[in-house]
Amino acid sequence: MSAPASYSVKAAQEGRRSFLDPRTKLALVLTLALFVLGGLGGERMEPLKTVLSALPFLLLLIEREWKRFLRGCLMLGIGYGLLYAMPYLPRAAGFFALMCGGILTRFVVTVVMGEYLVASTSVSEFISGMERLRMPAAVTIPMSVMFRLFPTIGAEWKSIRRAMGMRGISLGGNRAGEVLEYRMVPMITSSVRIGEELSASALTRGLGAPVKRTNICRIGFRAQDWILLLLCLAAFVFWILGLLGVGI
Fold first, then answer.
1. Which pLDDT score is estimated for 32?
2. CA-CA distances (angstroms) from residue 29 to 19, 33, 34, 100, 241?
3. Number of domains composing the chain
4. Are residues 106 and 37 in the same domain?
5. Which residue, 243, 222, 236, is CA-closest to 28?
6. How far apart are CA 127 and CA 133, in angstroms?
7. Which residue has the higher pLDDT, 21 or 11?
8. How far apart are the first and last CA of the chain?
9. What pLDDT is stored for residue 164 in this prediction?
10. What is the DSSP letter of 60?
11. What is the CA radius of gyration of the chain?
12. At residue 170, does pLDDT exceed 70?
């Protein structure tokens, strides 16, 4: 079973190569999760964290993912706005603003990077990159299914929402109480069915075969990949030097 073209990334539809190698994207996701989301390295790493935080938005602009870029900027702006307004709010509201602002400023950057990874990487590119990393099939197959699962579920959710809107079932309507039943139940059922179909599709394409598969997609490290990989490596080096007490 082949997925519809609407579920493919733009680069695959246009027949062009992604700006970054999938292995570079995975390294960036890991680095952002540890240093930006996890706060590894503390305040000492703040200048480097600022550079890392700007990367997902720059990459979305390069890949022309305008909606994801604007949505990420909006959420990040709300987070920093809450942190800025926190000292001027009453104690309870200030604590709530601090909590929400801290969560948004940390989570949004990593989530945007994950969105970039999914939006700009085709399944073939991802599988090829994982095979070059010598990852076992037990890891590659579930992750490749997830790459197709999220866009497919997103399209299914939009279809269910349009169908329910035509029937007058919405949060603002007279039948708002039926939203959970008439939207979530079909969504759960569709998710189970989609997962089974995608798993069968992955196995049909030979992902579980004992022989080595071939790929026609083009991947490989280029200048931009080496620059970003060196940036990721620098973050870990600075962190290790900080643990050793070496000043920079």
1. 93
2. 16, 6, 9, 22, 22
3. 2
4. yes
5. 236
6. 10
7. 21
8. 54
9. 78
10. H
11. 21
12. no
- Name residues whose C-beta falls within 8 Å of residue 65's C-beta, 6 or more positions apart in sequence: 10, 115, 116, 119, 120
Q: CB of 140 within 8 A of CB of 130? A: yes
Residue 134 confidence (pLDDT): 83
- Average of per-residue pLDDT values in the chain: 80
For the segment 52-72, what is each residue's pLDDT rounded down to a tens digit? Answer: 989 999 999 988 888 889 999
The reply to whether 201 falls in a domain is yes
What does the CA dihedral 137, 189, 13, 133 come to, rounded to 10 degrees?
Answer: -20
pLDDT for 207 equals 67
Residue 175: strand, helix, or coil? coil
Q: Clarify whether residues 212 and 224 are in a common domain.
A: no
Cα 102 to Cα 97: distance, rounded to the nearest angstrom: 8
Domain that residue 158 falls in = 136-216
Q: How many residues comprise the chain?
A: 248
